């Protein structure tokens, strides 16, 4: 049985990137581009059919494990274990080609937008992000695109292999009882925190101003102005503005319904009236059709929210808080029915631990804004409405709820069943992945650079 590190890696390097979001230390792994002065000497070290593993892929993960170990000894064969897991991922990609496992452009674009918004939030602004990596936001996004798509395909392939697996309470007990008592982990203080988020509503004046501006731009184009140049100057979609508003080709169902409905009514060269979607207001120019796909460009304006609108959301949250505290409605029900944060609203409003997907989060893993808010709260308390900025940079209000506060303790089934069950399931999935690897390793062409020949990347002990 491989060690826990290798099991985690076998689950896909993409899991770290997608679940942790990638702060600057992880951005190099994601391929966003490394900050100046941190370049790695690169080269192909493994070929798996038409898939490759680069030396930098191994070295970046190795450096992260060294940093995470904080001076503790690491396995001498760590690089080989990392490489073996990367080869498993590449094998999954090679088999995905054979099995026609794909992901839509819309899903890739959505993940790119989410990740870029997270990067911008972490460094403070898009300009700072561009300065950090000495690249435009569009170039960073273009760099990310093939790797994000690869990671999502890996996820789909792994889901196909292990997605239906589950563990029974008996299996969880058996897994826990196999752990030597002196090896049980010691958990620091953990909390369960819920939130209900309500976005600030765009006021009518701001909406009308955006519509009027787009109608003016539309008139300019009809009078002979260049749609592309106006998009570069005015569009608030950073991904497409630098390309004159060009979005490229999409199939039916891959863009938001309002945009698609308006676009598909147009003929090449025609412009739509102003169209509203969840992203703001669009002026769309149709370019061409190719089979089931169509290409457009657009100018996007996002009306600014105002304090009065945030106040309206705050008043609604205050009323909801009163209902929860008076037991008229549960926090979970209120979150499900009212919160705009879908990730937490479907989980009773509770924030998720990005490490294991559970609801209990170590204090040192909390967002600082949440930590300093709940630090003096009692269990069961709900804050008044607080200003909040969503991951995609939108103004909002939220209330926070401290559901539980678990003191430091050694792992046990009563307090930590969710964590232990997740670990047991991870081990079960790892075994199934190993079996799949052994079954399929002979179906691909493999070439390993001499410096890694001793790793025996296709040898898996079942």
UniProtKB/TrEMBL annotation:
Transmembrane segments: none annotated. One of its GO terms (molecular function) is peptidyl-prolyl cis-trans isomerase activity. InterPro entries: OMP_Chaperone_SurA, PPIase_dom_sf, PPIase_PpiC, PPIase_PpiC_CS, Trigger_fact/SurA_dom_sf. Residues 1-28 form the signal peptide. Residues 336-357 are annotated as: Disordered. PANTHER family: CHAPERONE SURA (PTHR47637:SF1). This is Peptidyl-prolyl cis-trans isomerase SurA. It comes from Hymenobacter caeli. The lineage of its organism: Bacteria, Pseudomonadati, Bacteroidota, Cytophagia, Cytophagales.
């Amino acid at each position: 049985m491989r060690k826990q590190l290798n099991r985690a890696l076998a689950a896909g390097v993409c899991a770290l990137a997608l679940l942790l979001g990638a702060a600057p230390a992880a951005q190099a792994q994601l391929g966003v581009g490394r900050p100046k002065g941190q370049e790695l000497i690169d080269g192909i070290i493994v070929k798996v059919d038409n898939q490759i593993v680069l030396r930098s892929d191994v070295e970046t993960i190795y450096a992260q494990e060294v940093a995470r170990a904080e001076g503790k000894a690491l396995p001498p064969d760590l690089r080989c274990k990392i490489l073996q897991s990367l080869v498993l991922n590449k094998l999954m990609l090679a088999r995905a080609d054979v099995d026609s496992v794909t992901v839509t452009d819309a899903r890739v674009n959505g993940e790119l937008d989410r990740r870029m918004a997270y990067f911008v939030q972490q460094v403070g602004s898009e300009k700072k992000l561009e300065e950090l990596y000495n690249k435009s936001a569009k170039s960073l996004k273009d760099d990310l695109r093939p790797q994000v798509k690869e990671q999502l395909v890996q996820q789909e392939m792994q889901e196909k292999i292990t997605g239906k697996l589950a563990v029974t309470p008996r299996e969880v007990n058996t897994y826990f009882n196999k752990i030597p008592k002196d090896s049980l982990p010691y958990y620091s203080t953990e909390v369960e925190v819920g939130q209900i988020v309500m976005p600030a509503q765009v006021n009518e004046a701001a909406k009308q101003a955006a519509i009027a501006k787009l109608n003016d731009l539309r008139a300019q184009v009809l009078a002979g102005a260049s749609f592309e140049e106006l998009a570069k100057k005015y569009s608030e979609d950073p991904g497409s503005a630098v390309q004159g508003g060009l979005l490229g080709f999409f199939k039916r169902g891959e863009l938001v319904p309002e945009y698609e409905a308006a676009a598909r009514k147009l003929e090449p060269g025609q412009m739509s009236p102003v169209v509203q979607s969840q992203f703001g207001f669009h002026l769309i120019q149709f370019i061409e059709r190719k089979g089931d796909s169509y290409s457009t460009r657009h100018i996007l304006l996002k009306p600014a929210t105002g304090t009065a609108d945030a106040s309206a959301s705050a008043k609604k949250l205050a009323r909801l808080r009163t209902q929860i505290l008076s037991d008229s409605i549960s926090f979970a029900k209120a979150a499900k029915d009212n919160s705009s944060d879908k990730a937490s609203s479907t989980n009773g409003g509770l924030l998720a631990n990005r490490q294991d997907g559970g609801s209990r989060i170590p204090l040192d893993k909390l967002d600082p804004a949440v930590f300093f808010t709940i630090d003096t709260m009692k269990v069961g308390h709900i804050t008044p409405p607080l200003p909040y900025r969503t991951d995609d940079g939108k103004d909002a209000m939220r209330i926070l709820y401290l559901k539980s506060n678990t003191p430091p303790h050694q792992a046990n089934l009563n307090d930590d069943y969710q964590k232990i069950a997740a670990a047991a399931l991870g081990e079960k999935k790892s075994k199934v992945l190993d079996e799949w690897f052994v079954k399929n390793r002979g179906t691909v062409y493999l070439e390993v650079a001499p410096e890694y020949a001793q790793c025996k990347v296709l040898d898996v002990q079942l």
